[in-house]
Amino acid sequence: MSELIPAEHRPLPVRKVHSLRTFRWLAHGWADFMDAPLVGLAHGAVMGLFGGLLLAFAWDRFWVLAGAFSGFLLVAPILSTGLYAVSRALVRGEPANFGTVTRVWGSLDRRLVQFGLLLTFLGTAWVITSAALITLGVKPPVSTPSDFLHRVVLAADPGVFELWLLLGGLMAAPLFASSVVAIPLLLDRRVTMQCALRTSWRAVAANPICLSLWAAIIMTLTVLGLGTLMFGLIVVIPVLGHATWHAYRDLVVRETS
């Protein structure tokens, strides 16, 4: 089968790693955050501010808010590209500052732009799907977080919330598998988007338990960040962003040349 795939699109070799490596990735992420705190805080503050604005706008439209926050998480990996660049600079012993970030975004790398557009499209699709499910499946309409909790999560007749979770999982799982190492790889090496996607899937196939644990850690920390009215995201976002870079370095075999 691999002979049918053009060489430039073939996945790169990956490693099998121990599941507890996930906690080492977090430790490295925290260390990088401490080495370049202003850059990390800026990324976290921007995403926290965006989440706060979203919360303020849709507080009485929770049928939009529930999907919007989930959609926001889908596009967060591409928004963390600057953090990956900072971690790469730190590994190389290069200056890691705002200039590192602006050079990445200023390059307008077509591959990263395409990936970002793909994530945005999928995030938007989930927002629409989530809103349609909640508005059509729950009566009277859900308007506030309290409505969502009582009429969807704690509903006497189960079904809508379980379906909402199932649909979200069906969308999030393949998206996570496609992006877990793809975006850092696109930043780090001149490979095609198809190669990056296939490499990401190969990494997941080789490390299903490890990367399932990693997905659970990401979700748990993000929920904790959201639960602090976005303030927790100021630290959670940069630590996870830097940690993702170290996950990529562990999982994808380095070029020998």
UniProtKB/TrEMBL annotation:
Q: Which residues cross the membrane?
A: 38-59, 65-91, 112-138, 163-187, 208-241
Note whether Coiled coil occurs among the keywords.
Answer: no
Which superkingdom? Bacteria
Pfam families in the record: DUF2189
Gene source species:
Aquabacterium olei
Is Nucleotidyltransferase among the key words of this record?
no
Q: Write down the InterPro entries for this protein, in alphabetical order.
A: DUF2189
Key words of the record: Membrane, Transmembrane, Transmembrane helix
Recorded protein name is: DUF2189 domain-containing protein
